Amino acid sequence: MVVDSPGYGFTDAPVKLKTLWWKMIQKYLCYGVRLNLILLCVPAHRGIQGQDIKVLEELKHFNKPVHIVLTKVDQVKNNEQLVRTLNETSGITHKYGHFVRPEIHLVCAEHNFGVPDLRSRIGLAFELDHYKENFK
Fold this sequence. Notes:
This protein is α/β, with parallel strands linked by helices and 136 residues long. The protein is built from four helices and three strands. It has a single domain (34-134), classed as 3-Layer(aba) Sandwich (Rossmann fold). Helix content is 46%, strand content 14%. The longest helix has 20 residues, at 115-134. The chain starts with 14 loop residues before the first helix and ends with a helix.
């Protein structure tokens, strides 16, 4: 099962509702024993910003693997900007090395760019869990 939580940074919703969403997400992260992988999706044309860093700070307390996904890569103006965003993202996430995985996924759902690779990574997370469970 894949769960898509409500957005946090640029979601057009009242602050009270965003706070309620975050509490719901925290409960899920605390009690989601079968939670194998967290995907933190960040628009590539914007890059990791303050709110994303706050979320990473919160996620480090849950001891779950996190993968960064840069979405909407088709909206990045040029290759130099994409390389800059990748470098900045890598530099920020490097500080969270114990739970944020080093690979950064680039995707564009509209053009199916990177989607098969991301699906494979998600599948691998579940296969590893299945393997561990069946061969204890």
